[in-house]
Amino acid sequence: MCGIIGILGKSDVAPLIVQGLKRLEYRGYDSAGVATISKGNLDRRRAPGKIAALEALLEVRPLSGALGIGHTRWATHGAANETNAHPHATRRVALVHNGIIENFAELRRELIDKGYNFESETDTEVVAQLITYYLEAENMSAKEAFHAALKRVR
Q: Fewer CB atoms < 10 Å away: N or C end of the chain?
């Protein structure tokens, strides 16, 4: 289980996302994270442990942006640490996920062969990298890239 929240607002949403994650903490207590987009730039903060650790990090390194996602993680693939915490992000995509991607090892090998680098041990990062591949290498729109990636995931 994991807790997932997304907000599109009119002002900075990170504090609201953290409030929502607190209500979802029972769904995942291994790590938590938030990603936002501000002025076209994607940024994120992740912390191992409970939401309080993420809150402390955001006090020191706040996020701005009116669009954001958040996640509490119950680890399935990879250790409970900052690197494996969600959201996973590339230059263009931030992604959270609840569940298990059965063919992630196959997709990961394929993307590594195409020159993509992975920082985590999680299955979710594969989807973020796959969407980025379709956006950049195949020049697809966001909708097309998400659709193509989701067709590959099992």
A: C
| Residue ranges per structural domain of the chain | 3-152
Residue 55 has which token pair? 């809150």
* Exposed/middle/buried for residue 93 (C-beta within 10 Å: 0-12, 13-18, 19+): buried
**In terms of pTM, does the model score above 0.85?**
yes
HEC string of the chain?
CCEEEEEECCCCCHHHHHHHHHHHHHHCCCEEEEEEEECCEEEEEEEECCHHHHHHHHHHCCCCCCEEEEEEECCCCCCCCCCCCCCEECCCCEECCCCCCCCHHHHHHHHHHCCCCCCCCCCHHHHHHHHHHHHHCCCCCHHHHHHHHHHHCC
For the chain, what is the mean pLDDT? 97
